[in-house]
Batch of 2 targets.
Target 1
Amino acid sequence: MNVAFVIYNNMTALDFIGAYDPVTRLKTMAFMPDLTWEICAISDSVSDSAGLKFTPTRVNEPLQGFDLVIVPGGVTALVYQLTQDPAFISWLQTARSCPLIASVCTGSLLLGAAGFLSNKKATTHPNAFKELAEFCSHVVDQRVVDEGNIITARGVTASIDLGLYLCERLAGHAVKEKIRRQMDYQTAP
Amino acid sequence: MNVAFVIYNNMTALDFIGAYDPVTRLKTMAFMPDLTWEICAISDSVSDSAGLKFTPTRVNEPLQGFDLVIVPGGVTALVYQLTQDPAFISWLQTARSCPLIASVCTGSLLLGAAGFLSNKKATTHPNAFKELAEFCSHVVDQRVVDEGNIITARGVTASIDLGLYLCERLAGHAVKEKIRRQMDYQTAP
């Protein structure tokens, strides 16, 4: 199981880290010892929208071959711009054959621009429901929306709910509950 | 208002980012336009316990002069080791005169080792209540414990509650609520 955490300039750091924490605990808490992951970007250096620097472990390499790809969101206007950036969207499309693709917050606009939400229900930050509508069949106001091979989550802190949901899908309810308690997270998705 | 986000090797990324998100929104959402912050470490490069790299903006400089210092936690055993690291604890003690110092999760063990919890109530991750007991007057099982100039929060995801609590202390309830809604966070502290 190899996971790609996608990062990009002007993303929201918590969208990324809120899912990264529970998913990487599958390995660090020894539930899935063979789990591996990469931090994937198209640029050498990435800063979130408040200037915090992140360092990718893979730069501008195709996403195909990953078992799970997770895409964070950012401020709606900036992410909407990115939906119109051919270089970024082409790169995201290299995840086309990946069996499971997930997004947090306005990350679903990016999945939509890549064509991954055709005929799918999806969610995003409530402030971006209108923008998402042009990219999917139906906008759903739910914390996590599972369409089989595509999972979308609502705003920013829904990253934690998405991460825990993925833990449950990958390793079962009991493991998810152990991770949730270790994260001292009091509301389950 | 200048905030120091302390980072160090083997910390838990979500302890840091869960507070960083709401606190930096005080500026990015224009409630406190003059808010500034630095990412402070004693080493050039910092990795969390799962290998994610962070880049400090200030390396091995004293923490005095900051208005607020926030210290994340990590895996109890590793943080407990750090409580016995004279170089790290001496550096943390340079925050002694800062008017407000906060911690997430086992970050309170570090505040304790620096002497900041003498005669104070404090909290930490439930798994580390025993370790915290030797550093403070009384361990309290609460999400956020406010002792005036020292605020401690429980485990990992309590970072978000701490961050929102700080938003309320710094900018009032209405601002905190706007930030909480923007974060799509459904349970208030």
Target 2
Amino acid sequence: MIIVMEKHAADERVERVVAELIGRGFDVHRSTGADQTVLGVVGDVASIDQREFELFDGVQEVFRVSEPYKLSSRTFKREKTIVTARGVPIGGHEVIIMAGPCTIESEEQLLVTARGVAKAGARVLRGGAYKPRSSPYAFQGMGVEGLKLLRAAGDEVDMATVSEVMEISQIEGMLPYVDILQVGARNMQNFNLLSALGQIRKPILLKRGMSATIQEWLLAAEYIMAGGNYEVILCERGIRTFETATRNTLDISAIPVIEKLSHLPIIADPSHASGRRDKVVPLARAIVAAGADGVLIEVHHDPEKAVCDGPQSLYPAQFARLMDELRIIVPAVGRSM
Amino acid sequence: MIIVMEKHAADERVERVVAELIGRGFDVHRSTGADQTVLGVVGDVASIDQREFELFDGVQEVFRVSEPYKLSSRTFKREKTIVTARGVPIGGHEVIIMAGPCTIESEEQLLVTARGVAKAGARVLRGGAYKPRSSPYAFQGMGVEGLKLLRAAGDEVDMATVSEVMEISQIEGMLPYVDILQVGARNMQNFNLLSALGQIRKPILLKRGMSATIQEWLLAAEYIMAGGNYEVILCERGIRTFETATRNTLDISAIPVIEKLSHLPIIADPSHASGRRDKVVPLARAIVAAGADGVLIEVHHDPEKAVCDGPQSLYPAQFARLMDELRIIVPAVGRSM
Amino acid sequence: MIIVMEKHAADERVERVVAELIGRGFDVHRSTGADQTVLGVVGDVASIDQREFELFDGVQEVFRVSEPYKLSSRTFKREKTIVTARGVPIGGHEVIIMAGPCTIESEEQLLVTARGVAKAGARVLRGGAYKPRSSPYAFQGMGVEGLKLLRAAGDEVDMATVSEVMEISQIEGMLPYVDILQVGARNMQNFNLLSALGQIRKPILLKRGMSATIQEWLLAAEYIMAGGNYEVILCERGIRTFETATRNTLDISAIPVIEKLSHLPIIADPSHASGRRDKVVPLARAIVAAGADGVLIEVHHDPEKAVCDGPQSLYPAQFARLMDELRIIVPAVGRSM
Amino acid sequence: MIIVMEKHAADERVERVVAELIGRGFDVHRSTGADQTVLGVVGDVASIDQREFELFDGVQEVFRVSEPYKLSSRTFKREKTIVTARGVPIGGHEVIIMAGPCTIESEEQLLVTARGVAKAGARVLRGGAYKPRSSPYAFQGMGVEGLKLLRAAGDEVDMATVSEVMEISQIEGMLPYVDILQVGARNMQNFNLLSALGQIRKPILLKRGMSATIQEWLLAAEYIMAGGNYEVILCERGIRTFETATRNTLDISAIPVIEKLSHLPIIADPSHASGRRDKVVPLARAIVAAGADGVLIEVHHDPEKAVCDGPQSLYPAQFARLMDELRIIVPAVGRSM
């Protein structure tokens, strides 16, 4: 931590800050210039609330030097993490496509869709059984019955499965059926849920909160990893801005930013980011071109009849064409598909 | 719901939309102008995802006419709701001040602070026992032991108590000690928690999510009310914007907006909104001047030693001076204190 | 325009709104449902401020049906516009790369950079002679002397030229040297400047304002086009959000959104959007993959010595590699390069 | 400027950064901890683009210590500036209310409104003669004819006058009629205009840009002050956020933030911030309670007939009631009115 004193701050003010720091067990390096003193604070500064020192008389600014997250940081682990779910490696050379319906509705719906996306080359099957709906009057998901259908469909087409967990009490019941547990944007800072997921040993797909900074997102990953579960996949899904032409603003820059700051795999979800089918295709191409490790896409064999988010679901044929386009792009980022 | 067709849309395109609507059991009013047709859809349109119709050929735009929330709306209930917690009426003529430390740390800390804020005129005592911390390495709260201290302190100074609930499993243990259960900003869309709180019969203080629209906030209240618990207090606490000079941007306009849209009491929290003591005082005055039903303020008898958020906690003497200033302001909004 | 009356609004309130509309010369279509009346307003509603009607007693909501922009809209002109600058077609089959230094510093700097980008395949040479600097103490550009260097360099390598105009008084002096006049983000709503640019007959590259909605951006284009200058190229350059990891948040979704709403060419600038060289390359790939008509990139032969924005400028060799990557991507969007 | 090297950065990397700094004429203080080196850079660092050093190998982070603005800073000038316009002191003990119509429409409209607001206690008369309209098809203002009416009305009721300047060419023609020249939000970074206003000797009312940070706003003031015109009044008018319930989000916290960072007077405009009459009154009260030096309010004697922004204009009687409420509040902030 760096504490910058005001220009010409009185010596006793500098002394008071130094005394406080030493009293708390930190080492202090003092750098005195012609008209300004700067203090370098050494020790476990993660425990300090920097605003405490901002309020001392004579202090101009306080900077936190070290990142508050550790386990998810590239500083902590240089080489990229590959998370493996039922044999599918996420974060490696291959760009992984995860696809399937927003919500599991029936055996037929899931099977038809699963066969379509598997044939086109998707490796992970998505499908929601517990649905976070902004209105209490909307359909809330099929629950465990849906998960059984997901497992069966995944087995038939040889795909790993991913589904959202909303509540601690659901975790145990999901484990037999789901290869990757997804934490939705609205739960990114549900710290009790994150801690509970740190106790299991299955990959977690952690969506970015609607207005979470990248640092907060990595701290959320830290909650999971601090419990010993290091298999975290990050998923960008759009942030909230003033623009209303799309449901959210896909933060495409987050892909190279995460790539630099963290060793965890980073994928993105163009379906929730845009909210409309005709925008999903160009965004999916952009995500791969930006260097993401994967894409999470909603596909429905009959979107007009979808219980939820039909308008942002691709038709199977559209998805197949998109896969062809992505295959053209991957060599440009030195990847395969 | 209103569906606006494109200019000169072919008749068969209009017919297709109308047929779909009628097939789903809605009534349709058709208004045909010189070059444009507009369809009014009547029935329980809350179940429609408007994007489905946006994707029909020939459709230009779709507007949802009715608010998606019901129980929290002024349309549903004209007269203002007064929520009463241990005899303290929130939403009535009196502006209610809730004050106390961010985190309960010890019996002495809580008692000294409670006596100070009670003497100055605060009616509700706040204090956190379960703390949502963005880092897993930070102090997570005293739990039930803290709640017992809160109850004892509240009883001594004759104040109602408010404390945050983070997880369904904590609810039952909190009921004996807490008069108002607070849902934090990060849990505003933790729908399972909201539903569970709909099953109890105690007032809920629902903080606005960091990037929640006012409509989403009212829908979150709806989750609680749909369960039969109508005692919801809304609390504005700052939204996330590009400005970094303050921790969050207090959305002061939310106060008159909520006042118009909803019958629920609306208060605001200047401590979390600004994150710094020297900004809390002017914001608290502004909140009351804007017409809020109350203010939630962090006060600590010794902020330098506070375990959490000390820099945004007022000193008891500062709080007392603020109360004097608020007493000057309340007649300007036709209220008492 | 659609006016939705409140449920059970008294007839006389409906009558008052209708009378006002008819008094102003509009036609009104009335649709009366079981419990709600909806009014469709026909005529030149662009002149109405919809809030006027929102304030009438009994009115619940007012929707504007037609877009407020005309000349820039796909409704007005279905086929895509190709803007041609010194023989370079922007908006056609070929993806056009514009490259060069942020600021023109010297003949040598510009020539070395121009030769590098021309060889790699760029078609338009950029270079600033008038610089909008947020601090009055920073270098403000070489002015006309710089423009002469730009023209000479463009001629030598056979590229069109683009440079920013900040002030009406600069326009005339720029015309002999510049093929495309750029309006910067900070001037997107400098309406006097836009109107003046509507009077000339040269292509205008209109950057999106830092917090402009897409609709405001198209209205700014309208200012230029209303004067008779239809040669407008739109350029997305990042919007301001709460995220601070990048200078701005590139709104990649704006590319398909503009493609649908407008017939004007749409390009994007990854250099200003990200502010850092290592993010420019992945964003440039994403921009092309999303379907943009071109990319505007800062390149400097010696970025460490650049007077301005060196950290976001690519090295010529980096730029050449990027061009190779983009050539891999373009077939995926059905384009050439 | 502070440069933080990565943990265990190789000595030669540290040396390279130090050599570069010394080569540019800066002094460097080096602080070497157990595992990390921090460099303090002394000299005129305002000229450095900090990203240049962020890109050096081995550099972890770079912090700018000093504010980039000088003349507008409290560090530069401790005592509050009082700007005086035709005898009206802005920034002193008295809270100054500026009121009048959005747009000057006619002699009668202006006179009736001016008499109303003068009688209620307003000290400065506002009225637009050049209007920045987002659509080219909207009324653009009466120009000099309007300014003459403004001067005459101001003289009759003994008020100072304020009106917006949009273009350098308008300045000279405005000087005889206007006591305060207003720079609108859209022109906050129109640097040529700001520089030109630095050459005159009349107070400037500088509105905050729609998405300007407070630092950028102070830098815009710096442009004016660098020319020798120190009479700058800052005006908060709402920033752009994701919330759509109000036109903009009034950043009420900006008032105490500016009060701390700058010696310039700070006022706010609730009319543009909210866009609706029923929100203007509570926001105006909040602005005064937060400690602002003044309020800028739109009032129209007949808002239904207003050419522009009628829905956000107060009726004269509403304005008079608001003034009474503000008179109750001012003692709470130690001010008079």
